[in-house]
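Retry 2 of 3 after timeout on previous attempt. Resubmitting structure tokens to design endpoint.
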């Protein structure tokens, strides 16, 4: 193994010869390795140079010409796969629409021609504010087809978040739905669109709305038009694809993390598709015969990469679901798998813990025989949640596999290379650095660390799919990613690497709790809480303490059938102490019904800190439910009053 990966034995008994050979090939000749990976997609012109790097700037497949949308659709149709199912669109009311590759291509061509007809040109930014529905996916592909950059904004954000992202990107056109449905309720999106369009400094020139109900939206003449009018405007027009240089941007997307300031990561036509096509094969074993279901939303990078682009690049069938996994009943998740013969699922640990709250009973009516593997990412998959899904729900019949990546990486970086041969699963670990990805764990000062030593995950060499810049702010890109630890890419995630090369994530680097000189990751503490059978979810942070520096402040969601009590607090506290030892000094346990989480499932621990400190949490536009913040405040006030603080 490479010296860039301290803490990995030269001979790794747990790693198969096939995986070891792929890792060594990538380390010894990274450019040759990625050139081979690039052969899996079509190029109108091959590259002059595989890689150029002038830190922090880099380019892949320099001089090559391609198009991301062409490789997703036209290529398959041209080689006779037009009749294969490309997309299954489902909604929580039972609606089901299926598009073959030929049908989806025709729909994308119609939207592409319509965009050109209303003045969208190559390089323009087009915002998309729509739920996870076929029209939204067609819009994304139509933008990349004509060389416009799409900016998808999660259709659950408020007007302020939508306006901020539109302004950051300088989007001139917004494609929106007027409504979505969530747990049986109609959610008015058009009101949010109208408010965002009035924000000072808005760059919007045209708004296209997809009416979805019996309440026609009020349009602004000269600016607004319906989806039907967009398509009619392009009838007989040009829906052809552009030929893009490999490093030409395909889309921008706001990072989905828990920080207050949004930033737009850039992903290109060439490198991005090579990176996600590679990880689709290596990490997920994705093949054309798969019916693949990523339970995410198109508003996140998971939705971009593994609802839309990677499954279509492979030629698989991708399933897009607009709705909640437990609505109209807790069996919805299992029913969808069974009725659509889903062969592989990609979901979030948050979703696993939500399903765990209901137990295994909702799954009993469904066979689930089509499933061959399950993948999780978004936050560390806590061991109790893994054990429940792996053993109780699925009976050890199929593997439940964790992995790790970020908006900025485009696709998985650390995982279990299922496509090359499944390695032993170490519950709680995200796996090994996948072949082609140079990953190391360093101290905050940049020093190499040995096995088991906790530090920060860094990337020592760019790979295809890693964002090359932040839209409109290259200095922030340099400062946030390449200067925190000079010479390497700073991911901001804390972890250790064991002697077999498995990576153990413990949360964000700035979410370490420091108790009497000991450093302990939030993920480790939350996993200890989940060891108690009453705990469904837990979120923790460090609270200042005069004696120890910090102690653990915990917010706990209970499983169905358990009620808050002092006796239960004592039981949970004892479980945590037993799991972590005396270093885990608990300040308090607060029972709540929900945790503050982003729409992509990440716990917003900075909200815990803000509540404890009595300060404003800042921008919470990415939060799933603002009521969770008020509940935290109420729980914290009640606890302090009870203790007389």
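Retry 2 succeeded. Sequence:
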């Amino acid at each position: 193994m490479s010296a860039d990966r301290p803490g990995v034995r030269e001979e790794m008994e747990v790693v198969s010869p096939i995986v070891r050979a792929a890792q060594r090939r990538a380390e010894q000749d990274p450019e040759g390795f990625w050139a081979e990976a690039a052969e899996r997609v079509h190029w109108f012109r091959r590259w002059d140079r595989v890689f150029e790097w002038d830190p922090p700037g880099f380019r892949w497949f320099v001089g090559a010409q391609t198009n991301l949308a062409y490789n997703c659709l036209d290529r398959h149709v041209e080689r006779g796969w037009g009749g294969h199912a490309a997309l299954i669109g489902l909604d929580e009311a039972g609606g089901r629409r299926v598009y073959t590759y030929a049908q989806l291509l025709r729909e994308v061509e119609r939207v592409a021609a319509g965009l050109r007809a209303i003045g969208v040109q190559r390089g323009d930014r087009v915002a998309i504010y729509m739920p996870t529905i076929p029209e939204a996916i067609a819009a994304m592909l139509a933008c990349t087809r004509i060389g416009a950059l799409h900016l998808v904004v999660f259709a659950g954000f408020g007007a302020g978040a939508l306006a901020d992202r539109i302004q950051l990107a300088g989007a001139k056109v917004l494609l929106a739905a007027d409504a979505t449905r969530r747990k049986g309720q109609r959610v008015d999106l058009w009101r949010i669109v109208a408010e965002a369009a009035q924000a000072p400094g808005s760059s919007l020139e045209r708004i296209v709305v997809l009416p979805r109900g019996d309440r026609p939206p009020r349009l602004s003449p000269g600016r607004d038009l319906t989806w039907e009018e967009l398509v009619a405007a392009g009838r007989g027009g040009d829906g052809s694809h552009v030929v893009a240089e490999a490093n030409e941007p395909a889309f921008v997307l706001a990072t989905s993390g828990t920080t207050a300031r949004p930033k737009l990561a850039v992903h290109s036509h060439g490198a991005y598709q090579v990176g996600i096509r590679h990880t689709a094969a290596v990490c997920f074993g994705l093949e054309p015969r798969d019916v693949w279901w990523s339970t995410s939303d198109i508003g996140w990078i998971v939705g971009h990469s593994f609802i839309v682009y990677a499954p279509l690049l492979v030629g698989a069938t991708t399933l897009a679901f607009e709705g909640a996994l437990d609505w109209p009943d807790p069996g919805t998740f299992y029913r969808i798998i069974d009725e659509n013969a889903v062969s592989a699922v990609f979901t979030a640990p948050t979703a696993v813990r939500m399903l765990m709250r209901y137990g295994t009973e909702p799954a009993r009516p469904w066979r689930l025989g089509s499933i061959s593997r399950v993948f999780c990412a978004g936050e560390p998959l806590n061991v109790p949640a893994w054990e429940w899904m792996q053993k109780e729900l699925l009976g050890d019949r199929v593997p439940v596999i964790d992995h790790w990546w970020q908006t900025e990486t485009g696709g998985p970086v650390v995982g279990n290379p299922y496509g090359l041969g499944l390695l032993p699963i170490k519950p709680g670990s995200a796996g090994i650095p996948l072949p082609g990805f140079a990953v190391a764990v360093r101290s905050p000062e940049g020093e190499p660390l040995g096995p088991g030593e906790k530090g920060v995950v860094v990337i020592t060499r760019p790979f295809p799919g890693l964002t090359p810049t932040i839209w409109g702010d290259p200095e922030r890109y340099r400062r946030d990613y390449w200067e925190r630890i000079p010479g390497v890419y700073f991911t901001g995630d804390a972890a250790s690497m064991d002697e077999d090369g498995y990576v153990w994530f413990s949360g964000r680097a700035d979410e370490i709790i420091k108790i009497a000189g000991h450093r302990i990751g939030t993920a480790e503490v939350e996993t200890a809480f989940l060891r108690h059978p009453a705990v469904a979810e837990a979120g923790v942070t460090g609270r200042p303490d005069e004696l120890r520096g910090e102690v653990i402040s915990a917010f706990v969601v209970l499983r169905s059938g358990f009620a808050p009590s002092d006796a239960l607090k004592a039981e949970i506290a004892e479980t945590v102490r037993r799991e972590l030892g005396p270093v885990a000094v608990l300040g308090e346990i607060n029972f709540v019904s929900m945790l503050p989480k982003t729409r992509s499932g990440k716990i917003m621990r900075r909200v815990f800190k803000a509540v404890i400190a009595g300060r404003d949490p800042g921008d919470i536009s990415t939060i799933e439910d603002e009521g969770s913040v008020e509940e935290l405040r109420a729980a914290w006030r009640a606890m302090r009053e009870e203790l007389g603080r």
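Attempt log closed. The chain has a mean pLDDT of 91.
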